[in-house]
Every structure is written in structure tokens, then in C-alpha cells.
Amino acid sequence: MTDQGLRIGIAGITGRVGRLLVEEVQAAGAVLAGGTVRDKAKATGLPEGLALFTNMAGLAAVSDVVIDFTHADTAIPHAQALADHDTAWVLGTTGLSGAQQAAVLKAAETIGVVHAANFSAGVTLVRRLAQMMGQALPAESYDAEIVEMHHRQKVDAPSGTALAIGEAVAKGRGVALADVKESGRDGHTGPRKPGAIGFAALRGGQIVGEHEVLFTSADEQITLTHRAFDRRVFATGAVRAALWVQDRPAGYYGMEEVLGLPPC
Fold first, then answer.
1. What burial letters (b/e) apply to 219-230, b meaning 16+ CB within 10 Å?
2. Catalytic pick from 78, 85, 115, 150?
3. Crossing angle for the helix pair 75-84 and 98-107, nearest 10 degrees?
4. Mean pLDDT confidence for 9-13
5. pTM for the structure as a whole
6. Is the pLDDT of residue 65 over 60?
7. Which of 79, 130, 199, 251 is a plausible cystine mate for 158, CB 3.0–4.6 Å?
8. Contacts with 133 (C-beta within 8 Å, 6 or more apart), sequence order
9. Residue whose C-alpha is closest to residue 80's, from 69, 89, 93
10. For residues 240 and 246, what is the distance between their CA atoms, to the nearest angstrom?
11. In the predicted model, what is the mean pLDDT of residues 98-119?
12. Rounded Cα distance, 138 and 148, in Å
């Protein structure tokens, strides 16, 4: 995978995924255009002479594509800066509010945006299979449950990936996830609601990410499992998305399009 002319910028370049992205951009043969940091004085261990910026506008001006795994609070200003500079956007931020998601979609009218809760090829395929299973297995007969586990430092639950898998199941069933989601059961909850999509979140150690989707009936159980062993898988997928989106017209894309999966 090479593209020596493509300039890729990295938002939050000193973060754990940001540093992996530096290596993956270089391995892909693309140009590492620069990155954003909170404090330039504390930005150590990066390639010598790399352009560093404290705002997205500066990075967008020198990049063809920016990969962004920062925070939901940055989505609106980042969307505006990237659209203003006609710079494509690979966005891995989850937990966006309605207004933040609207800003992303607005930017996609001007630039190519690849937005995914998880850039792993494996998770993308699990989501597709979960949608197909949600469509094929009747909700009144097959209970859908999603279990995820992450490292102890993770601050949100369920994970963005778990919610994305739940959205896929709900799409397959023709319902809105918000109407059928059950999360964090505790105490005397009563019997399981028919058609519910349940979530359980576990935290401990330094687990990168584990997700399990279970469809259980009175007679059988089907399980889909994905385990990430290294955060590098997310960086590799994001760079793959950056190389893909450079030649695409303005629009809002997911990893399904990057992997070339047929519409579903």
C-alpha cells in the first residue's frame, strides 16, 4: 500500500494511537504532513522537523487527508476547518451529539469523510454479519446480546464499537436501537423484554478490545467474536481509509465502502 504523493496529517499525534499512526503513515509510503498537539514543548519522540500545530486549521492547510481520533468536543471546529481547506477527513471519534454529527455530515457535503467507530477490518465484517443475522433471525425468537471488555482506563460504556454493532443488529431488524436498547441491568429487572438488544460492559487490565455478539433462542446460540490484540490494527485501518478517500468525491463513507463490501 503506497502513495508517495499523499500528505496525511494526524490530529492528536502524541496520543497512543497517534504515535502508531505516525509509523503506519510512513510504512504506507505517504507523506507525514504534521500533527496537532496541545503543547508543542511536550511533543517528544516525533520525527525531527515535523510540523506541529495547536489547531486543526494549520494542519488542514498542509494536508490532503487528516486522520482524527481525538474527542467529540473537537468535531465541530475540526469539521469547519477541514471543509474550509478542502481536506479529506478520516474520523474515528465516537459518542458524537446530534449537533456534532450534523457538523460532520455538513462537512461531508464539501469533502470526503470516512467515519467509523472502529477501523479494524474484522470489526467491520462483524458488523455486517450482525446486520445480516439481525435480519434473518426473528427478534421474537432470538435474543440479541452484545458483551464488550476494554482496559480499565476507558471512560465510556458501552463502547462505541459495541453500539455500532448494536446499530447493525437494529438495522437488520428494521428498528431504532434507541427503542430497544437495554444496558447495565442491575437488581430486580423483571423478565427480558421481547426484541431487546442488550449490552454488557466489562473493564479491567489493559485489554485493547473484545466484542461478542450473541443470538440465543430456545434451541441454539450463534456467537460472533472479535478480539483486538494491538491498537495498531486501528491505525492500519485508518491509514487504509486515508489512502482510499483521497480519490473519492465529497460524501460520508464508512469502512464498508473502504473494504469494497456491497451495499446491504
1. eeeeebebebee
2. 150
3. 10
4. 97
5. 0.90
6. yes
7. 199
8. 169, 172, 213, 215, 222, 224
9. 89
10. 10
11. 97
12. 23
Q: Taking each helix axis as running N to C, give the angle between helix 16-27 and helix 232-245, from 0 to 180 degrees, rounded to the nearest 10.
A: 50
150 is catalytic: yes
Predicted confidence at residue 263, as pLDDT, reads: 86
Q: What are the residue ranges of helices labelled H in the chain?
A: 16-27, 56-61, 75-84, 98-107, 121-136, 160-173, 177-180, 232-245, 255-259
Q: How far apart are the first and last CA of the chain?
A: 27
Closest by Cα among 98, 101, 102, 58 to 82: 58
Q: What are the C-alpha distances in Å from 154 to residues 97, 123, 185?
A: 19, 19, 20
Q: How far apart are CA 193 and CA 144, in angstroms?
A: 11
Mean pLDDT over 35-62 rounds to: 93
Catalytic residue among 154, 171, 188, 226: 154
Active site residue 154: yes
